[in-house]
Design brief:
By secondary structure, the protein is an alpha/beta fold. Helices cover about 40% and strands about 10% of the residues. Helix 6 packs across helix 8 and helix 6 (about 150-165) crosses helix 12. It binds pyridoxal-5'-phosphate. Pyridoxal-5'-phosphate (PLP) binds near residues 247, 248, 276 and 277.
Length: about 500
C-alpha cells in the first residue's frame, strides 16, 4: 500500500509473481467450475452499475481487495461463454492454450504496427497466417493478416474493393465528384450486417447494398445476382463487389460460390467470401465441399475467435489483392519511418485503418501447436456430428420441426405441437407458433443450464442450437434436448 502510493514505477516484479500465481489459480478455478453457474446470470439490466462506486478511487487499494471484488462482482455477472451449455449465437471459446497466449501477449507488450516496433509480431503473424492458409487448403497467392473481428476484416476487404474499382476514393473521397457513379455491392438477404456497417463506414452508404433474394435453403440465387447487376449497369450504376457467405449467421446457409465467382469474374468484380463462422471446417479435407470455389475470391474472412477456440479477438483476413489494401490504407508519416530510411518487408499498419495492432499471432501460434491441426479437426468434426445427431432427434419427433438444412454445426428448429399442425387460419397459427417458441426458449434459458438464441427464417420464429464450444460434450446436447421437451410439455399444460 505504501509502496503503491510512494512508488513512481510499476508493481514490484516479485509482488507481481505472487499476484500472478494467485490470478492463475483464480482462472483455473473458474474454468473448473464454470459449468455450475447459470450460463446467463439471472440479473436485470442496470442492476450492476450501482454495485460499483460512482467516483474513481483516489487512494491505492490492496490487490487482495480488488481480486475479492472480481470474484464477487465480475464473475457472477458475466454471460458465461466458457460454459458448455452456451449454444447461442456462435460460440467463442477461450481455450486454455489460447488464454496462456493472451497472458504472454499482455506481458511482452508488443505493438505489431511496424516491423520495427515488433519484428517477431510481424513475422510470426506472417507465419501463422500462412499456416492457417495451408490448413484450410487455399493456394499460396493468398496472403493476409489478423484483425480484431470479422467486421474489421470485411471493412478492410471492401476498402480494397473500393480502391480496385478505380475511383481513388482513399485519396479523393467520393463526395461531390461528378465522374463517380453510384457504386454497388451485392450480398444475399441473409448476409451479416457487418457488411452494411462496412458500406456505411466506407462512404458508400447502405444505399450501395443490393440484397439478393435467397432460395429455399437461404442461399443466394446467382440468377437473381446476375439480373441485379445487369439492371444496375443499364441504369449507369457501377457494380464493384459481391459478398458471398459460406455459413450465414442466421441458418449457416452456403451461398453457391462457384456460380457467384463466375459472375464476379465475368463482370470484373471483387469477390469477398464471409466465412467467419464456418471457415475452420475447411481444415477437414473431406468436409470442404461447401467451400468449393472460394479460392477464386479476392478476399476471405475466417474467425479463429469463433470455431478455432481462440480467445477474443482474432479474425483472419486472407486476400490475393494486398496491393489494393495498401492503396486503401497506406500513408507515410515521419514519426513511423525508420531513421535510416530503410523499408521493412512488411509493416502491417499499411493495410489497416488502425496504427496500433495487438500481437495476435502469439496466441494462435501457441494454440496451433498445442492442438495441432489434427486436434482442431477432431474437435470441429465432433461438433458437426453432435449437430447431425441433434437434428436427427428433431426430425424424429413429431412435435418438433426443423427449419433449415444443417451443413455445419447449427440446427434451426421450432416446437410445433399437434394442435398447431394444421388448421384453416394459417395467419393466427403462425402467430401462435411464434409466441409459443418465444416462451419455450425463455423457459429453457431460464433453467440456466443452456443458453439458446433465436432467429427469423421465412418469417418464422426459429430456435437455434449452435454447437461449437470447446467444452460442450454429448451429455450437454442430450440435456438441452431433455429440457426443450420438458419445457415444451409444460407450456402445453
Ligand atoms: C459472426 C459473424 C460476423 C461478425 O463477426 P465479428 O468478428 O463479431 O465482427 C460476420 N459474418 C459472419 C458470417 C458471422 O457469422
Amino acid at each position: 500500500m505504501s509502496e503503491q502510493l510512494s512508488g513512481l514505477t510499476d508493481m514490484d516484479p516479485e509482488d507481481f509473481r505472487a499476484a500472478a500465481h494467485a490470478v492463475v489459480d483464480q482462472m483455473a478455478d473458474y474454468l473448473a467450475t464454470v459449468e455450475r453457474r447459470p450460463v446467463m446470470p439471472p440479473i436485470t439490466p442496470g442492476s450492476l452499475k450501482p454495485l460499483f462506486p460512482a467516483s474513481p478511487p483516489e487512494q491505492p487499494e490492496p490487490l487482495a481487495a480488488i481480486l475479492d471484488d472480481y470474484r464477487r462482482l465480475v464473475e457472477p455477472n458475466a454471460t458465461h461463454w466458457q460454459h458448455p451449455g452456451f449454444m447461442a449465437l456462435f460460440a467463442t471459446t477461450a481455450s486454455a492454450p489460447g488464454i496462456l497466449g493472451e497472458m504472454l501477449t499482455a506481458a511482452i507488450g508488443q505493438n505489431a504496427m511496424l516491423w520495427r516496433t515488433s519484428p517477431i509480431g510481424t513475422e510470426l503473424e506472417q507465419v501463422v497466417v500462412d499456416w492457417l492458409r495451408q490448413g484450410v487448403g487455399l493456394p499460396p497467392e493468398f496472403d493476409g493478416m489478423l484483425t480484431d473481428t470479422a467486421s474489421t476484416s470485411s471493412l478492410i476487404a471492401l476498402a480494397g474493393a473500393r480502391e480496385a474499382s478505380g475511383f481513388s476514393a482513399a485519396a479523393e473521397g467520393l463526395a461531390g465528384r461528378d465522374e463517380v457513379p453510384s457504386l454497388r455491392i451485392y450480398l444475399s438477404r441473409e448476409a451479416h450486417n457487418s457488411i452494411d456497417k462496412a458500406a456505411m463506414t466506407l462512404g458508400l452508404g447502405r444505399a450501395s447494398l443490393v440484397h439478393i433474394p435467397v432460395d429455399e435453403a437461404y442461399a443466394m440465387r446467382p440468377d437473381a445476382l446476375a439480373e441485379a447487376i445487369e439492371t444496375d449497369r443499364s441504369a449507369a450504376r457501377r457494380p464493384i463487389a459481391i459478398v458471398a457467405t459460406v455459413g450465414t449467421t442466421s441458418s449457416t446457409a452456403v451461398d453457391p460460390v462457384p456460380a457467384i465467382a463466375a459472375v464476379a469474374e465475368r463482370e470484373g468484380l471483387w469477390l469477398h467470401v464471409d466465412s467467419a463462422y464456418a471457415g475452420p471446417v475447411a481444415l477437414i479435407a473431406r468436409r470442404r465441399a461447401p467451400f468449393a470455389g472460394w479460392e477464386r475470391a479476392d478476399s476471405i474472412v475466417i474467425n479463429p475467435h469463433k470455431w478455432l477456440f481462440t480467445p477474443l479477438d482474432a479474425s483472419l483476413l486472407l486476400t490475393r489483392r494486398l496491393d489494393a489494401l495498401r492503396t486503401a490504407f497506406s500513408l507515410s508519416r515521419a514519426y513511423i519511418e525508420a531513421p535510416d530510411g530503410s523499408v521493412a518487408p512488411r509493416d502491417y499498419t499499411d493495410f489497416t485503418p488502425q496504427l496500433g495492432r495487438r500481437f495476435r499471432a502469439l496466441k494462435l501460434w501457441i494454440q496451433l501447436r498445442w492442438f495441432g491441426l489434427e486436434g482442431l479437426r477432431r474437435r470441429i468434426d465432433h461438433h458437426i456430428e453432435l449437430a447431425q445427431e441433434f437434428a436427427s432427434w428433431i426430425d424424429a419427433d413429431p412435435e418438433f420441426e426443423r427449419l433449415a438444412p444443417v451443413p455445419f454445426s447449427t440446427v434451426c428448429f421450432r416446437y410445433r405441437p399437434a394442435a398447431l399442425r394444421d388448421g384453416t387460419d394459417a395467419g393466427s397459427i403462425s402467430e401462435r407458433l411464434d409466441a409459443l417458441n418465444a416462451r419455450l426458449i425463455t423457459a429453457v434459458n431460464g433453467t440456466g443450464e443452456v443458453f439458446l438464441s433465436h432467429t427469423k427464417l421465412g418469417g418464422r420464429y426459429t430456435i437455434r442450437m449452435a454447437i461449437g464450444n470447446l467444452r460442450t460434450e454429448r451429455r450437454h446436447i442430450e440435456r438441452a434436448w431433455q429440457l426443450l421437451r420438458r419445457e415444451a410439455a409444460a407450456l402445453d399444460g
